């Protein structure tokens, strides 16, 4: 984003920093303006599929061993159930899976209706047609305000031809395959 773009969003001089107040418009604008990949975290627990969507998943936390992290809302009712699986499937959703994202994040809906998934037999559940996949084991937890940071040890990975789905400013912008350097 250009400085002029920031000006428009804050309606103020972009060079001025303001206190990061919880739930303030400024914090929302900065967090929402942070482009992120959309990841479905899914597992089979006691024979039933559970899943949620996360944009806080970050990879490259460690390369040896391969690790990722994810930040779970403390008021999430799905995460405590998913966690019980021990091994969780992380599917980096593909550009054409915006509707799947909304469905997997919905409060009162069958999150898996019409969704093509692949179970591995030991817990993780993967979304077919995604951009890439990681078989993750919960390795640690760290309290972080109203969230809990979860570290994942990645046991298996898979990568397909699809372009990943991005989330930015509450929308799914299409990735432009132009390189500026
Ligand atoms: C684009 C998007 C990103 C999200 N990212 C996260 C996240 O990083 N961490 C999280 O705990 N919930 C995240 N959520 C919310 C969950 O996917 C889900 O909606 C929420 O957990 C539903 O409530 P429940 O856990 O009580 O079922 C996100 C939702 C959307 C739509």
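Sequence proposed for the structure above (181 residues):
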């Amino acid at each position: 984003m250009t400085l002029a773009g920031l000006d428009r969003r804050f309606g103020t001089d972009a060079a001025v920093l303001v206190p990061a107040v919880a739930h303030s418009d400024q914090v929302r604008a900065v967090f929402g303006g942070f482009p992120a990949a959309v990841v479905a975290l899914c597992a089979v627990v006691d024979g039933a599929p559970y899943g949620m969507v996360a944009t806080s998943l970050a990879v490259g936390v460690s390369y040896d061993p391969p690790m990722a992290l994810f930040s779970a809302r403390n008021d999430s009712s799905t995460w405590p159930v998913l966690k019980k699986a021990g091994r969780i499937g992380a599917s980096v959703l593909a550009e054409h899976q915006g509707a799947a994202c909304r469905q997997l994040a919905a409060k009162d809906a069958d999150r898996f209706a019409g969704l093509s998934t692949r179970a591995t037999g030991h817990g993780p559940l993967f979304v077919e047609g995604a951009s890439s996949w990681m078989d993750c084991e919960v390795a640690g937890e760290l309290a972080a305000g109203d969230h809990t940071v979860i570290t994942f040890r990645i046991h298996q990975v898979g990568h397909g031809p699809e372009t990943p789905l991005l989330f930015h400013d509450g929308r799914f912008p299409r990735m432009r395959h132009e390189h500026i350097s």
